[in-house]
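Recap from last week: sequence in, structure out.
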Amino acid sequence: MNEQDSTRGGGWTWRRVAIGAICLCLIAAGAVYYWIYAWSSGYFTADRGRTAEGWPWIGAAEPELTIHEYVDYDCPHCPEAHQWLRRELLFHQGDVRLVRHDYARMRCAAGTPGRPPHSCALARGGLCAADQGAFWRWNDAVMSDPRPMTGPARDKYPVETARALGLDVAAFEACLTAPKTVERAQAIYAEAKSRRIADTPSYLVDGKRLDIVQMSELLDDRL
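Predicted structure tokens:
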């Protein structure tokens, strides 16, 4: 082989290496995007519905493992924990079902004097979004988007989120303050208390209470 042929062959080899590296980077970037963002985008195509008790669920229609998740929208650790669990579920949609309990840790009782807990308003918002078939879109918005924590914008946030999701805003507003909705939110609170759920996030699997570390260990063992 002369010098020109050798140079040409070496250049082609480097081009192949570069093309291969680019392809690997694109595949890796796609995997990272899917892993991080697909849970809150349109790519999460798992089945969803409500249990006989009315709790919203997502994942397997006939699950081998059912996880009951208790979260408070105002809990600082819950969004990250929930997103982690949803990412885990991406790869086990046919085996695992996630059942959601919006557990506002302060009472959501009707007629409570003073300013009601914001987490209670968000829990009621989830109930009202579920009534319009949009619980998981509501959940993903509240769990992933920055939201105002003080001032008038905080109080308007549930309705403005419903508007951004394209829900029937009038129906949502009426539902949000209806005594029946307050009672439903209080029922979630009472159910969690009856199961001795004190902290959020918390999980129930086969009747056993787990914290997030125990939940991670169980997933490693069973999935």
